[in-house]
Amino acid sequence: MSLTKDQIAQRIAKEVKDGYYVNLGIGIPTLVANYVQEDIAVEFQSENGVLGMGPFPFEGEEDADVINAGKQTITTLPGASFFDSAMSFSMIRGRHVDLTILGAMEVAENGDIANWKIPGKMVKGMGGAMDLVASAENIIVAMMHTNKRGASKLLERCSLPLTGVGCVKKVVTNLAVLEIRDNAFILKERAPGVSVEDIVKATAGTLVVEGDIPEMKF
User: Fold this and answer.
1) Residue 193 burial by CB count (10 A; 0-12/13-18/19+): exposed, middle or buried?
2) Can you tell me the distance from the alpha carbon of 46 to that of 202, in angstroms, rounded to the nearest whole number?
3) Which of 8, 36, 85, 178 fits as disulfide partner to 185, beta carbons 3.0 to 4.6 Å?
4) Does any domain span residue 216?
5) Does the annotation mark 47 as catalytic?
6) Do 23 and 92 meet the contact criterion of CB atoms below 8 Å apart?
7) Percent of the chain beyond pLDDT 90?
8) Catalytic residue chosen out of the listed positions 15, 38, 43, 47
9) DSSP-H helix ranges across the chain
10) Do the Cβ atoms of 25 and 102 come closer than 8 Å?
């Protein structure tokens, strides 16, 4: 069976290391803060000007003035700080963020990402996505493997307007964990109950399968 959005976030949380500064994009990435190990120190940054985000608040404990870049209410950890967008993007452009976790509409086998615009549909703008992909050296994408019509979102080449070129290092979907290397998706793990054949059928880009592929562990 395929993973839920929370399970995708839970798997990505294993990639977060002690001492990391991490930027969480909107959508599935925002859930990652709920699953980071309690015995490590991590600083989550939100591009709207927060450093030190915690998990989402429990119902009834929300503060409408404390939000992330996706306008969701958040909690903050002791020592958290708030600042303007200029300071926030200085952190991002200065490469002070160790890991960036983004959602995507499409990812290509060479690491290109499209996550901000569908032609013909109204959008508010690209936000900070282009700054993040241009500045980050470690980018993990959290996404569904296929769209609502069942078509693959892991492609040979992106069909949508690009956000960044050759920048994605790893993709975690509801079906698999894949590294991007040498213009190919390298299958590293599969979701529990999902076969390699299922992943092959759902992947339009070049997929490399080496040896036995283990199931994800949470």
Assistant:
1) exposed
2) 32
3) 178
4) no
5) yes
6) yes
7) 79
8) 47
9) 5-13, 85-93, 129-135, 196-202
10) yes
Name the residue range of residue 74's domain: 5-208
104-159 pLDDT tens trace: 999 999 999 999 877 666 666 666 777 888 888 899 999 999 999 999 999 999 99
pLDDT on residue 137: 85
**Chain centroid to CA 93:** 18
Domain count, the chain: 1
Q: What is the pTM of this model?
A: 0.92
124 in the Ramachandran plot: left (φ > 0), alpha (ψ -120 to 50) or beta?
alpha
Both tokens of 111, joined, read 């690491």
In a domain, 195, yes or no: yes
For residue 155, give Cα distances in angstroms to 143, 192, 204.
Answer: 13, 23, 5
**CATH number assigned to the domain comprising residue 173:** 3.40.1080.10
